[in-house]
Task: structure prediction
Amino acid sequence: MRKKDLEKLPVYDAHGVYRKAVNAVVGVASAMGLGSGFFIDSKGVAVTNRHVVGECEDVTIYTHNREVHRGFVIRSFPEYDIAFVKVDVDRNKYIKLSGANELMVGHAVYSIGYPVGISDVLTQGIYSRPEFIEIEGQYYMLHSAKIFKGSSGGPLLNKYARAVGINTWGITESDSNFAIPSYLISDLHDLLIKDENYPNFSYSVYCPACGAQSYDFLQCDECGAVFEV
Result:
């Protein structure tokens, strides 16, 4: 987004960011444990970390209004630790994405998640480093808004209550917390919506091994994994 367009957006304090975004943040429970996520469009699609869903095909979603829904993993990218889940909801609030490169060191950032299963927890910090950090081929943003076990998959928000990243992991004994930049979420989401079957994928099957949608219902046409019938 251009700087002059950013300047037209309302700016929020911590409480304002919380009120604006919290309705779109969800808890995610799978066989792997508990995590967080957030809706990124009006079609009931939420993003989370791949390590939160693992190789599960469906998960349990907890929303801000205390509703419990079934969620279906429609695509995941193990190499980027990102997964997309279609949630069976009639309507949903969602969080818009904003460029991570719009942040400067010292800018306030906010995390909302479900640490250890506790809903709607906000932490506040600052953006800590001007460049992304590369770790094992993955790029991360460094910030000090504390994340805990169960916070993975939740949004990292700027002062406009837009997601600039997805929280992924943190170092417990320090203020070093890592988020995947929003550009990657945006690029992968754009890839998904190009499919005419999005978001329900009625004519394909999700492959939990590689995270792709396969149009062969017996064997994944991406990785060759055989599906259980």
